[in-house]
Amino acid sequence: AQKITQTQPGMFVQEKEAVTLDCTYDTSDPSYGLFWYKQPSSGEMIFLIYQGSYDQQNATEGRYSLNFQKARKSANLVISASQLGDSAMYFCAMREAGGTSYGKLTFGQGTILTVHP
Amino acid sequence: NAGVTQTPKFQVLKTGQSMTLQCAQDMNHEYMSWYRQDPGMGLRLIHYSVGAGITDQGEVPNGYNVSRSTTEDFPLRLLSAAPSQTSVYFCASRRSGFNGYTFGSGTRLTVV
Q1: pLDDT digits (tens, 9 = 90+) for B36-57
Q2: What tens-digit pLDDT sequence spans chain A (117 residues)?
Q3: Cβ of A66 under 8 Å from any chain B Cβ?
Q4: Looking at the complex, does the CB of residue A107 fall below 8 Å from at least one CB of chain B?
Q5: Which of A7, A30, B36, B111 is deepest in the core (most CB within 10 A)?
């Protein structure tokens, strides 16, 4: 079974508007972490934001926020005031704390975001 | 600069050749891992290590070997390259107790 699912292969947004990238996850581990990474066309992996399963508040980092709905097992990334430089591939990833999963990141398939001027 | 260094950045191999992808980090991170990235499939874990002398298999280990003789280095060996191993390979490291992973810049490998 897919542990991380990103159902949007591609998304388009107008510059300066907000956009939400979807991510759902599957785990029975009560302790886990959720990550979002950005991969521009140059290929590097850029860390954006992290949410721990026990965190009470949604994570925010500048224009990025993570809409964490634990009961629904979703961890959507919200980018406010989109910029042309936000055009990239975005990956959702999860790390489970327990057992043999310790430390391993599992990635979704990615969403390509295109920001139009 | 501190970080994860991967070499080479690009490589073309012939089917059946062997080679080693290098990964080094200077942050004293305990955890290191190798991923491959293929179109439409995200990043998939090949092998990982939680410390010197300790390695384990990830999701797609077949055709690859690793070793971790030092904290700093985590090389990935392709034993007999196959066209199915054409991919972009990323090395990543993390310090125990911290959440952030640091990724290398990747190695683009083509097997012909």
Answers
A1: 999 878 899 999 999 999 999 9
A2: 569 999 999 999 999 999 999 999 999 989 899 999 999 999 999 999 999 999 999 999 999 999 999 999 999 999 999 999 999 999 999 998 766 556 788 999 999 999 999
A3: no
A4: yes
A5: B36
- Closest partner residue to B48 (CB to CB) among A33, A43, A103 is A103
Whether the CB-CB separation of A82 and A93 falls below 8 Å is answered with: no
Q: From the CA of B60, how many Å to the nearest CA of chain A?
A: 12
Contacts of B77 (CB under 8 A, 6+ apart): B18, B19, B20, B21, B64, B65, B66
